[in-house]
Write a structure and sequence with these properties.
Chain lengths: 180, 176
């Protein structure tokens, strides 16, 4: 067998090792996503809704981290930012706030907006610090939105929309001010 | 490896760590000959190719963990040294006969000096192979004179690595 052919075979094996290594590294994010889903279920979120959000979040996080690039680098900051938005409404539930009807909107909805605002500031500041571009922002936003939605479904669709509004309202000024 | 190639390898490994697959081919072309040459010095000739291949696969499987602040060649050689050590231990466990390392005589030396130099070099490499990859990487980087690693932290790491090298040498060869 020619030396060139051996080198080509070795190169193909090395490439497979590289791809497998990247996949394994990306899969290390899975426990964080699963922990977020378990926390949401433990705080009373419905199992089907949580699964419907956690599965896309898991696929998105692992997929982006495996692919790499700016969007891949955005997964960890996105998960971190989304954790705040996830925790805020869940904490409301754990302190005994009963989420029924208008009473729910009095506390859970503001908590979702505040959590979203926190996520927006974290994403914007990370983007500025790393001098990152649009794919980074979009990747972090998508991951943070899905993570936060795991908790903000407590306040229904309004909670999720409120969280997204909080992200934009709090994050955009930080980004705009830094880009000037 | 020259400074330019070293810097290029560092850039390529940083791109690979970030997921840029276009850097794979050039990184392979730069790394493979160096790892093969390194393994040929560390283990018996019969095992050198296996050790080099194992090291290459390990380097690429861990490419996403590579820290661009570190010297890529020293990092890869640290992994290679670990693979060589693992392979040698496997061979020792199987009680296989050692094949002597290849001769590398200096044309300016007499036969006696060449034998002494070869024995010393083989002994030093054998002891180095018992150290952890981080220590090997540090000592290799210091020997190669990597300019960016000359901070206080690096000097402390080097001091500790050399201390462990001395202990390993004494354990194997006494206080000579």
């Amino acid at each position: 067998m020619a030396a060139d052919e051996l080198d080509l075979r070795l190169q193909a094996r090395a490439r497979r090792a590289y791809e497998l290594g990247r996949l394994l590294a990306a899969l290390r994010l899975a426990p964080f996503v699963l922990a977020a889903a378990v926390a949401a279920i433990a705080c009373g979120r419905p199992f089907p809704v949580t699964c419907a959000l956690a599965l896309p979040l898991l696929l998105l996080s692992v997929g982006l981290a495996y692919a790499g690039g700016p969007a891949g680098r955005a997964v960890r900051p996105g998960l971190l930012a989304g954790a705040g938005a996830l925790a805020a409404p869940l904490l409301m539930a754990t302190v005994g706030h009963a989420c029924f009807g208008p009473a729910c909107m009095s506390l859970a909805l503001p908590a979702c907006v505040a959590g979203g605002g926190l996520a927006g500031v974290v994403i914007a500041r990370t983007t500025v610090r790393r001098d990152a571009d649009l794919p980074f922002v979009l990747g972090a936003l998508a991951v943070a939105a899905l993570t936060g939605a795991l908790g903000c479904t407590l306040a229904g669709a309004a909670g999720v929309l409120g969280m997204l509004a909080g992200v934009v309202v709090a994050g955009a000024p930080v980004l705009v001010a830094a880009r000037r | 490896m020259e400074g330019g190639e070293r810097a290029e390898l560092r850039r390529l490994m940083a791109r690979l760590a970030d997921g840029d697959r276009a850097a794979f081919g050039p990184a392979f072309a730069l790394l493979w000959p160096r790892l093969r040459a390194f393994a040929a010095r560390y283990v018996a000739v019969a095992d050198a190719e296996d050790a080099a291949q194992a090291a290459l696969l390990r380097v690429f499987s861990r490419a996403s963990e590579y820290d661009p602040e570190r010297d890529a060649l020293a990092w890869a050689l640290g992994i290679a040294a670990w693979e060589c050590r693992t392979l040698r231990r496997k061979r020792e466990r199987r009680r296989e006969d050692d094949v002597p390392p290849p001769d590398r005589p200096d044309p300016g030396q007499g036969p006696e000096e060449a034998v002494i130099a070869r024995d010393l070099s083989a002994a030093a490499e054998a002891v180095l192979g018992t150290l952890r990859p981080n220590d090997v990487e540090t000592i290799t980087a210091a020997a190669a004179g990597s300019g960016k690693l000359r901070g206080a932290t690096f000097r402390k790491r080097l001091s500790r690595a050399l201390g462990r090298l001395r202990i390993a040498w004494r354990a194997r060869h006494g206080s000579r």
